[in-house]
Amino acid sequence: MTAKTIIATENAPSAIGTYSQAVKAGDTVYISGQIPLQPQTMEMVTESFEAQAVQVFENLKAIAEAAGGSLSELVKITVLLSDLKYFAQVNEVMERYFSAPYPARAAFAVKALPKDADIEVEAVMVL
């Protein structure tokens, strides 16, 4: 059986439910969905969708680094949006954080996200 290691960092929001920021199993890291919470205050970023997306990717970056990796090692991300009208803006923000070859990705519009966020992103990373 593969041992699990829980990944936690103060540089990303603490869990607001019954989950870990990330779990490492073998050389694979499963990063829980991140919403635009500022880790220091646990307050939502609300000034714009772009600001929310940037905060989400900063949170993912902090967790990836705490696991011993980086965003370049993400192999799959899932983007949940409050509205598909934000799809183009997600691509613009992702261009700041990723370069080719990009991770695989799925994007969905959902009815609601925790704390009324407009974006949540989860990821899988292979070290």
Radius of gyration: 14 Å
CATH class category name: Alpha Beta
What is the count of structural domains? 1
Strand content: 25-35%
According to CATH, what is the topology?
60s Ribosomal Protein L30, Chain: A
Which descriptor suits the 3D outline? globular
What is the averaged pLDDT score? 96
Order of helices and strands: EEEHEHEE
Count of strand segments: 6
Strand order of the largest sheet: 1-2-3-6-4-5
Q: List the total number of helices.
A: 2
Judged by helices, strands and strand pairing, the structural class is alpha+beta
CATH architect. name: 2-Layer Sandwich
Per CATH, the superfamily is: RutC-like
Largest sheet: 6 strands, mixed
Distance between the termini: 19 Å
